[in-house]
Amino acid sequence: MKKKMLTLVLTAGLLTSIFAGCQETPKESIVKQKGAANIKEYQSEEDTESPLRQVLGAPEHYANQATYENGSLVIDTDAEVILPDVNFMNTYTVSAQEAGQELIDTVSQAFFDGATFYSGYTYNVMTKQDYQNDITVLKKYKAEGNLDPYEHGINEETGELFFDIDEVIANDEQRMQDAPEEISKEEVKPSFGLEYWEDNGGGEKQKAVDTDDFFGVAETKEGVYDYRISKTLAPDLTFKIDKKREDLRDGREFADWLEGEYGIKRHADQESGISEEQVKSLLDISQEDAEKIAKEKVEKLGWNMDVHDWDYAIFYHGENGITKDNVLDTGYLFHFVRMVDKVPITYTASYGGGLEDMDSTLSPWSYERCDVIVGGDGIQKVEIFNPYQLGEIQTEHVKLMDFESIVKIYEQMMEVSNANISEQQEKRTYHIRKIVLGYTRIYNPNTDNDTGLLVPAWDFFGAFDFEAKGYSGTNNGEYSTQSQMTINAIDGTVIDRELGY
Hints:
Elements: H1 12-21, H2 36-39, H3 52-56, E1 61-68, E2 73-82, E3 91-96, H4 101-111, E4 116-119, H5 120-123, H6 128-143, H7 165-178, E5 194-199, E6 205-210, E7 213-220, E8 223-230, E9 238-243, E10 255-259, H8 260-263, H9 276-282, H10 287-299, E11 305-317, E12 327-340, E13 343-344, E14 369-375, E15 378-385, E16 388-395, H11 403-417, E17 427-442, E18 451-468, E19 471-473, E20 483-488
Helix pairs in contact: 6-7
């Protein structure tokens, strides 16, 4: 399912109501109309052969602090200003790559050269020993008095636990009787349209076809990996690779990798997390060596991608977040982005492809992403979302707004978009720590949900502190990959990162 798909977003209607709530409305709207009609107005300008920073009048660093809403809103900007080392930027048409066999082969060969692939439906079946291990773990929980080990909670209507440990043990004991002694390895080729056997609901098996998914396992010299490809939410297409681990005693318990931005405890009021020193102490590979491994794989895709940013990665198990006792491994997370004319498509934490409201019937298109986690024994996890097909230049040497005009829009729109914050919180203080010019993709899902345009855009990265009745939060924005404001560098329109336009 799409992450963050249905978050509250800044729609046109919301903007209208916010403007109405301001003490003073600009004489001329600072946000121009989005859409195809406005895109046609993009103009070219002559190449001055001067660096873009000089052309746009962008400083190396920008600082300003402004207070609004009778002190309940503070915008603290103290940011490095990052621009690509080029003289000009273009706009490009872009579309979703066809989810065909050629693309599947490209990804499979890049990450699994020489591997043998098997059907996940038979490879991942539980054997008699697997059931016995599960029964042993559950009986241990019960003996310790832990009847809700996965914290499913209590049914308020019946007063009983949702997770009935005795019933689960009984089911395991029954299923173990018919379980195989060993898994069956059915060799396959990664592709859509493979047949598999499923339960028809009456205790019998019937053939089914995975038309939009591939669920497999890859055996390699570096280890065994689950490999999942899905176009169920087309035009979105996902490739997910996860290394199988042998250090998890309980297959029912949640376990996964988490980026350091959310797993490293950097603030006193942070409920879970471990220190950066603890993360480093568990590392058994250098950042340079890990990056080399990741790059060697991604370069084989042939998509002209490079590392845009990196973070620590933490592998943990359990239901209550990260603690020093439930971390099993650490590594490095590398965010790869496509380079276009030596300019990166800016990486942000937002996936794009959101919906404007719950009743929407659109099939949205999320951003291209390529994230790779590397640990001491190689590739641990890979997520590739929605590979782009780069098209032709739409506007060459496109004319960009100067930095001063962009900052004016940013500061005014930060006030406007938080106009009613005092109704929710006593105080909110934004900390903007990085201002970046790069490419981003915009599109119009109402007319075409798998083609769009790469445009130059400014992203204002940071986070915020807040105070509200009974609770508060602190984040100085130093490590944030969340863009708090995205502005089209050509016409000054505000781009909603969650929607992708």
